Amino acid sequence: MPSFEVQRCTEADIPRFFEIVSLAFANDHEYVDAVFPAHTTPAGRVRGSERMLDIFHGDPYGNFLKVVDTGTGKMVAAAKWNLYEGGPLPPQPEIGGDYWENEEEKEFAQCIFHAFFAPRQRVLEETGASLAALDMLMVDPDYQNQGAGRLLVRWGLAVADEMGVDASFQLRLHRVFSAD
Prior knowledge:
Elements: E1 4-8, H1 14-25, H2 30-35, H3 42-58, E2 62-69, E3 75-85, H4 103-127, E4 130-139, H5 148-163, H6 168-174
Antiparallel strand pairs: 1-2, 2-3, 3-4
């Protein structure tokens, strides 16, 4: 079995981060397909990587992580944990842009995006914005069921413990978006 290590992502990791999103969910997850149209095509991967890079730079709460196979140096899993340490309530995320083939597809993506994040927004309100939230977690299909996803979950739970917040309810809310 490979040896894995959790590391923080750099800007250079984001194309592989998004590639893992696409590989892990293929065209089997309505949320991913709607929010990242054509993500399994080369052009869709480029657009998805650019959007993920915008999130990487623009989300002040986001912590992008990767699991690396220490024997090969290959990134095999990725996650984004959002860490909210009290303070003003952040607004619910929104999506926009010109990524969809028509207005109907864009409206559907915005609707499903809003529905996905609404439960977390309610928890943020209830906790006074003190929360460790698993935003996304995915494992390259070639490495699933080998423990890489569990390492990313453990990372977030350890941070939640340090922050003094319970993250387990957030894991249930976001289980629909995990692949390991």
